[in-house]
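Sample entry (110 residues):
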Amino acid sequence: MERIGSKQLKAIIDACDKGDFKTFVELSGGACVPLKNQPLSALHVAKETPNKYGEAIKKLIGLCFQGIETIKTHIRKWIVRPVDLSTKKNDFGMGLALSGANAPPLEFCQ
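Predicted structure, serialized as tokens:
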């Protein structure tokens, strides 16, 4: 973000980091500004394969500042894959059963 060098972008990021939603909205142009006129927008790319209905899938990869500069925030690729639970212990290292007859009473789940 330093490469962009915008004071407005730095102020928006500082407001986000502090959790100051009011300042974020004001710096983005106000509550009534259309999305197309706001300085920050979501940056999407289309995935290679469509969904089961043949529709293009948009993947969020970062932010676009003033429609010109891109800021990639999602730099890792995550893979969802099934896990074979039959080979794993289901006690999460606690040495007790979490389901079935040996499960702890509900007061321990709060």
